[in-house]
Amino acid sequence: MSGNEIVTDVVIIGAGPVGLFAVFELGLVDLKCHVIDILDRPGGQCAELYPEKPIYDIPAFPEISGQGLTDNLMKQIAPFGAEFHFSQMVTNVERLEDGSFRVTTDADEVFVAKVIVIAAGGGSFQPKRPPVPEIEQYEGKSVFYAVRKMDDFRDQDLVIVGGGDSALDWTLNLEPLARSLTLVHRRDEFRGHADSVNKMRKLVEDGKINFVMGQLGRLEGADGQLSEVFLKTAGGEMGIPATRLLPFFGLTMKLGPVADWGLDLHDNALIKVDTERFETSEPGIFAIGDINWYPGKLKLILSGFHEGALMSQAAKRIVHPDAKVVFQYTTSSTSLQKKLGVA
Amino acid sequence: MRIFVTDQTGTEHELEALEGWRVMEVIRDWGLNIKAECGGACSCATCHVFVDPEWVEKLNPPTDEEEDMLDSVPDYEANSRLSCQILMSEELDGLKVRLADSASQDAAA
Ligand SMILES: Cc1cc2nc3c(=O)[nH]c(=O)nc-3n(C[C@H](O)[C@H](O)[C@H](O)COP(=O)(O)OP(=O)(O)OC[C@H]3O[C@@H](n4cnc5c(N)ncnc54)[C@H](O)[C@@H]3O)c2cc1C
Ligand code: FES
User: Are B71 and A128 in contact (CB < 8 Å)?
Assistant: First the structure.
């Protein structure tokens, strides 16, 4: 628990392309933002689902990759010094007596803001859970989908499942700590960086870790404490003594806690907004990008950018009700250029 | 042309398919329980199906990209495929597949 509330003008939930560009538009009208995302880096779907695939419909970029777009957005918004809070999920939003909001995350960070911008896209990214009976009862005790504290794995009999970079990286990082380590993957080919694959193979050769070609079958243990992992292999079922299990099957999106904040929803999944301000049914809470719905909505990055621009005008009026909002172009306004650090 | 899709509850559906469409698109457009998060870009593996053994050999083998994505289905079987990577053609008229649990809209953590 940090104990200290972070007080700011705007909290943006989601660091996808739309949340990022919102920092820019809000910055132009002098609003200070904190951005929270459950991922450990910015970019949302662009960075997580298709970092290397080209996007062809961003104005003035005939072609740009998901990661390239993210990198450029980060560069573009840098002058506004938004603060990022990664690897945490916003779980709660409540209104305070003075009309502002308190936002809480699962890392116990607390924010107080006059305006909330929900840019939660397709929802929060969460690990894919393997269809293993009763796996829930081990989660957080001996089954983990991410490594938060390396020390949780010291002197443990560890089984890591997966064939991508997460599985390989944690195999390499945890090998020196673990009492024993078994890497399990469905085939003898790995998606990870060649260098990691080579290092992993060397550890197998040297007898420091085991590699088993197979799949997760079932778990055995008691009170959330794992004792054995059973694998399905070509040669039949195989049991491995294990006290910790790390399955890495990547991430998928889930609406998550957004659904519980009492906002009017469309089809139980998308947040209804007006098309003038992109405000939700709750004054002061806006929703932009893939997460919102209005008649004619297109789930495009382009649309999310437009929504951010209109939202920022309305947000300004909430944070500074007495200030005059004047419309200016970045090309010709010295005051905007000063904010951007170019004049 | 038609495809036969067994959903996660075990019910079989006979769906009208169009030449050149992806099997994922057919399943999605008929409203069955498929997440297909990335819309067919071979980037999510939430369109995972098990292909009826009689049909496995008739499909184009998976590309390396599809194999890599199949690594991220937690319920892989030897007949696992991503339905967005199967294009409908005359030869596939009558194709039978079963939707994997990991393709469900509510499958997650
Ligand atoms: C394969 C693929 C190709 C695509 N190609 C194109 C294209 O060519 N052109 C185009 O315009 N669009 C394309 N899209 C769609 C585009 O990626 C989305 O429209 C865009 O990412 C939406 O941006 P967003 O910021 O609204 O949401 P997202 O990118 O989904 O980002 C939302 C962020 O919010 C976070 N979040 C959600 N809930 C919480 C919470 N409670 N607490 C903390 N964090 C939370 C998530 O972790 C995520 O990082 C494509 C999508 C995919 C998957
Ligand atoms: S729809 Fe995403 S991989 Fe098929």
Answer: no
